[in-house]
Predict the structure.
Amino acid sequence: MGLLRRQPPLGPVPLLILLSVLSCLGPSLSLDLIPYTPRVTAWDLEGKVTATTFSLEQPRCVLDGHASAGDTVWLVVALSNASRGFQNPQTLAEIPASPQLLTDGYYMTLPLSLDQLPCEDPAGDSGGVPLLRVGNDHGCHQPLYCNTPLPSPGPYRVKFLVMDIRGSPKAQTRWSDHITLHQGKAPGSIDTWPGRRSGGMIVITSVLSSLAGLLLLAFLAASTVRFSSLWWPEEAPEQLRIGSFMGKRYMTHHIPPSEAATLPVGCEPGLDPLPSLSP
């Protein structure tokens, strides 16, 4: 029969550490976990994810039984690598504001009451698509809990936290999946050196330049032909123009034969009209 070894009791120092850990985890462990995961809206909307904002679907019909009329539903926004270190605030004074995103990696915004998240069918809602746009408050109309534009692409994770009128947490949802914003290029980072352009772009540029040169040559040739009549005079017409007098050339073969016999000697048709120089 084996001997039972008795475990030594915990010393005072490990017991204090265990109690401190339980005291820190106690409020979080006592929260109701709402079986809901926030996500970007499924509606086909242009700009639902931009370089500074993203649009969440509203948590309608998911908070019943976890929140009352006097409670406030907060949105916790955190960088993905800082979401695990987020501790739910225990008072209103501990609610992290938007500037803490740059220092702590998380903040809380968009405080909503339960009546602002009705359970009606979104298709029958006259207010449009039911969504929450994170980072949409450029003017920061709520300085304490400003929904400021997001400063980096992230990625981010969000969750909803229900707090009572005293600021104590009551319920929370799961953390969302990673949400990455669209990344734009700064104007100074755009490469404009043609040596780094693709071969297709170089070929297209060369063809367009050649076509422009051919069009210029065709225009010059057409202009030369069009105005050539101003540079070289046309041949003289059959009718001679002398000043304002217009006359016609007459040939002797137009004279009838009877009249040709009466012409002076030396002017007969077919003879040389000039006088002969022979003796």
